[in-house]
Amino acid sequence: MNTIKALVVDDTIVYRKIVGDALKQIPGIEVVGTANNGKIALSKIKTLKPDLMTLDIEMPEMNGIELLQALQNMDNPPLVIMVSTLTHQGGELTLQALELGAFDFLPKPEDGRMADNMRKVKKTLEPIVRHVKRHKFGRIDPAARPKSAAPAKVKEPQIVPRPAQPRPAGIRSKSEIIGIGISTGGPNALTKMIPMLPKDLKVPILIVQHMPPVFTTSLADSLNKKSALDVLEARDGDTIKSGKIFIAPGGKQMKIVAGADGLTRKIKITDDPPENSCKPSADYLFRSIAQHYIGRATGVIMTGMGSDGFKGLVQMKNNGSVIIAQDKNTCTVYGMPKEPTESGIVDVIAPLEKIAAEIVKTV
After folding, report:
1. Which of 130, 220, 225, 246 has the fewest CB atoms found within 10 Å of its own CB?
2. Which residues are CB-contacts of 323 (< 8 A; sequence separation ≥ 6)?
3. Pick from 208, 204, 215: nearest CA to 239
4. Contact in structure between 326 and 294 (CB atoms under 8 Å)
């Protein structure tokens, strides 16, 4: 049986056991070692050569950020999953780790029984492990490890012929809103893409990034410092205004509703159930864009696991929206853009470096 070797790094024995036991419950995983700080982990990486490493951030001697920096100079480093605390500082450090090449993160359970926490961690790790297996034993995706893989060549965007279905009559050609759905690899991709958008962009942007509470606040703060546009975590009742970027709050759903005057559009934050196991969900947002901006919207689907966003994009497309998808070579995980692209609803396939320019062309 094809086996993935895993190393568990955490300075707390309780979390080493929780994460280690969760990994051992997943078929095809062998936990080859543990370490209680980054210095020991670095030594074990060289001798054990793990495929996957779970990594705590705050540790003595060498912390998780310092270890990630050391991995930059290593050939074939393990794919790194950060184990992060649900605090503001944890969110900021996690974003820093993702920018340094960490593949993804899982929230560190802070209460409950050990057995229950192990099951939560296992559920989060399972899709990540499936991706690692595909990368190691299946088709090799050159962008699966964006920091260690050779950089993909920047290609001109591919214009995809639109399906024969005509646009509804009377639709305007310019978009008045942009909706973006993104997941695994998203913080890194948004950090590169959002600053490329011009200061005079005259439309609002609504983003669903799959993240738990607290982390989306840190993401919005981080992007706001790097962007010419205002980036903020959306709040219930926010008026949708041009030149602003609204990020759906983690653990909630975000949609568009009509204002009391019938003219303005506002953001509605709800506690509706997850869709595609996602909360926030791109499908949930895209459906409301399709309803309120017929023929005047752009849907963007970017790197991420799973297929969240596809059904909503179909509705947007049927209502005359322009659809842009990130290309396979620049995705950390070619999951969310795959089905829209292969189904033929996508108008433009673009590498990460060109997505901002393609968005501008639609407004």
Report:
1. 225
2. 298, 299, 300, 301, 313, 316, 317, 340, 345, 346, 347, 348
3. 204
4. no
CA distances from residue 248 to 23, 180, 183, 213, 242 in whole angstroms, order as listed: 30, 10, 12, 10, 17
Q: Tell me which residues are annotated as active site.
A: 183, 210, 308
Query: Which residues are CB-contacts of 1 (< 8 A; sequence separation ≥ 6)?
Result: 27, 28
Specify the pTM.
0.87
Write out the two tokens for 259.
């204002």
Q: Which tokens in the block code for residue 218?
A: 């840190």
Residues 81 and 102: beta-carbon distance below 8 Å:
yes
Q: Tens-of-pLDDT digits for all 363 residues of the chain?
A: 689 999 999 999 999 999 999 999 999 999 999 999 999 999 999 999 999 999 999 899 899 999 999 998 888 899 999 998 878 888 899 999 998 889 999 888 777 788 899 998 999 899 988 888 887 776 434 333 434 333 344 455 665 544 444 444 444 469 999 999 999 999 999 999 999 999 999 999 999 999 988 899 999 999 999 999 999 999 999 999 999 999 999 999 999 999 999 889 999 999 999 999 999 999 999 999 999 999 999 999 999 999 999 999 999 999 999 999 999 999 999 999 999 999 999 999 999 999 999 999 999
Half-sphere exposure of 94 (CA within 13 A, CB side): 31
Question: Distance (Å, rounded) from C-alpha 319 to C-alpha 321?
Answer: 6
Say which residues have a Cβ less than 8 Å from residue 304's Cβ, sequence separation at least 6. 181, 182, 183, 184, 185, 186, 210, 331, 332, 333, 335, 336
Q: Which residues pair with 33 in a beta bridge?
A: 7
